[in-house]
Amino acid sequence: MTPEQITSRFAIKGTVEDIKPFGTGLINTTYKVKTEEEDAPNYLLQIINHHIFQNVPELTRNIKRVTDHIRGKLKAQKTTDIDRRVLTPIETLDGEGFFKDDEGRYWRMFLFIEGARSYDQLTNAKQAEAGGRAFGQFQKMVSDLPGEPLYPIIPGFHNTEMRINNFKKRVEKDPVGRLKEVKEEVDFLMERSEEYKKIVQMGKEGKIPERIVHQDTKFNNVLLDENDEVLCVIDLDTVMPGYVCYDIGDAIRNGANTGKEDDPNLDNVNINMELYEGFIKGFLQETKEILTPEEKETLAFGAKLLTYEQAVRFLDDYIDGDNYYKTESPEHNLIRTRAQIKLLKSMEENWEAMQKIVNEQ
């Protein structure tokens, strides 16, 4: 079925003028649906990648629960432009949250948020602070979501203990004979394996609470207005139970790196402490009232944790023969691994300063 045919199955207002591909997302295919009437909103139409998100009904339910809860909070605060401050799912004509076509594809629709922009890369500390504030606001908004826990859409997504155990098995098997090339990288990660099981163990022991966390805190998942003020957080597919350090940690790993995630020149790769401080400052402005002292102590560690975990995941895939991540060359996953290890080394060198910034907020 075509996007035009699919759109007619959703309860939209107005007449469709055109439908065009939109954005650069790697997971879900997205279209912008433009309407003719000035008083009718525009929409985003998406094909959900059900190979990654295999339980589409539970995924849809998670997003509806979270967005309904945030909308209720915004109404209570008498926010005026609510449709720009939270994603608005659009139901089908049958009142469902998604439509399954005759080819087995799953489609969903949201209101298009007008006058919003996002950035793939940060350029200054003000933007970093806005990013920290955005994910902090999200954390605060969903901290009292009632009812049963959200469905774990990707079980063990940031369970580093599980990732390490899988990695050890892969190293033992060496399925495509690449282990001899990466002994130095394997040794570096294995030497630190016990340290990075800490968060999962703290959770098991009840030292930190499990919360609803976003789990994909790239800066381009923050929508800003024309003044670079926060509107809302988007891409809620991985919102599920986890620990608060995952979100701030991955935001810093993604956003406060002076190089690229797959930078072949390791001299480019370091932690940008100015951007790091911006993220921490913005995040804690919003969350310091809800976080426990133990959680606050994990925030700086979260940046190291998520960088370590990503290095493990890239190297695991390299040793396995590149079956998970898209690669542009046979060495791509190894280049990615080395860049993450260099970023982690930079964080280790700046560790005292990183902790100090958290403690000063």
Automatic annotation (TrEMBL):
Domain Aminoglycoside phosphotransferase: 18-263
Membrane-spanning residues: none
Gene Ontology molecular function, alphabetical: transferase activity
Keyword tags: Transferase
Presence of the UniProt keyword Transferase in the record: yes
InterPro entries listed in its UniProt record: Aminoglycoside_PTrfase, Kinase-like_dom_sf, Pseudomonas-type_ThrB
Protein name per Swiss-Prot or TrEMBL: Phosphotransferase family enzyme
The organism of origin for this protein: Marinilabilia salmonicolor
